[in-house]
Amino acid sequence: MENRRIVLASASPRRKELMNQIGLEPDIVISHIKERVTSSVPSQVVMELASQKAEDVAKNQEPGTFVIGADTVVAADGIILGKPSDHQEARRMLGMLEGKKHQVYTGVCIIRCGEPGRAGEKAIFFDEADVEVAHMSEAEMEEYAGMEEPMDKAGAYGIQGFFARYIKGITGSYANVMGLPVHLVYQELKKLGFWEMENRTGKESQ
Amino acid sequence: MENRRIVLASASPRRKELMNQIGLEPDIVISHIKERVTSSVPSQVVMELASQKAEDVAKNQEPGTFVIGADTVVAADGIILGKPSDHQEARRMLGMLEGKKHQVYTGVCIIRCGEPGRAGEKAIFFDEADVEVAHMSEAEMEEYAGMEEPMDKAGAYGIQGFFARYIKGITGSYANVMGLPVHLVYQELKKLGFWEMENRTGKESQ
């Protein structure tokens, strides 16, 4: 069933793991474009960035290939948090998150590269979830900010790691909070015909 | 910090993984008691069973050891779903879950075995989460029920596996749905003094 080529335009091991979970085996091709953001609305920002990554990678792919780009940010009291640049910034971000709810946005862009007899297609969407973090003491924030876990993650925490001890609950998709709402990716891939027929990419291209 | 002995009275690899995530390294000791349920209320059922497992294992432990028992059930329209006995039952359970919300209950019992100068203590609690499953076609349910993934799991699905493609979202703790609400376990272990001092179990017992 899953014999079409699919490319994940992201270096995140968590996104790859999520795709593996639902039975997809993506190749990884990382985009090195300079990101351009024209909005300050979290849902728009993540869709813009997901789209730029996917477009950049898609232009070098064979017809019929599916390319997935994604971007995740955390929004606390309207302020967008990306990845912390150092442990001190991680500590500051944790101070903005502890003891309350914040939002996590992941934007996704899926491109089906044009192939013979079928134009290229693109789907862009986002998912949003609320995450509630328990009260954390100074010592707990210091300890966690000093670890490696928060350093490559938007908002300076990983929901699936050590930080799970501080997650009171979420409303929405856990996969979204991890970095890729795979339930939506699955539905969109169905719509785009990923599973519609046996491997078409073997056809002669023109 | 985590140098006290902690025992997980459960064979679930997911519960062990969740404890590892938050920095705990439990020994596994499985209870073989005959489970007795006196209630049909899901929250009561899971607390009863968690308690029976923990009590059974605790009676053979050294003073000062912490023992954790847990039990998880799925409730769909008020009907409690345990683990399916075969693929056909898994298929029936999926039919009760697809296209709507259901509830997941995990009961937890933590016992601190009595030690010199300090009586044994016990904490019993449960957590509840709502899970929304996407509409699934007959073919999708047949495919999933035929896999191994659903066979050892309450409600015949694993939220952290292939089934993630059908999870629209949750309200509550993802760890609870996986089988152990580690944020509550962490808080209760703090209250019970798990992290309060260096290893006391080295003291002479009497």
TrEMBL record, chains A, B:
Site label Important for substrate specificity, positions: 14, 72, 160
SUPFAM superfamilies: ITPase-like
Cofactor section: a divalent metal cation
One Gene Ontology CC term in the entry: cytoplasm
Alphabetical list of InterPro entries matching this protein: ITPase-like_fam, Maf-like
EC number: 3.6.1.9
Tree of life domain: Bacteria
GO biological process: nucleotide metabolic process
Keyword Lyase listed: no
Compartment list: Cytoplasm
Keywords, sorted A to Z: Cytoplasm, Hydrolase, Nucleotide metabolism
Active site: 71
A GO MF label: nucleoside triphosphate diphosphatase activity
Catalysed reaction, written as an equation: UTP + H2O = UMP + diphosphate + H(+); dTTP + H2O = dTMP + diphosphate + H(+)
Pfam families listed in its UniProt record: Maf
Broad enzyme group: hydrolase
Role, per record: Nucleoside triphosphate pyrophosphatase that hydrolyzes dTTP and UTP. May have a dual role in cell division arrest and in preventing the incorporation of modified nucleotides into cellular nucleic acids.
HAMAP family: Maf
Family to which the UniProt record says this protein belongs: Belongs to the Maf family. YhdE subfamily.
Protein name, UniProt field: dTTP/UTP pyrophosphatase
Organism listed in the record: Candidatus Copromonas faecavium
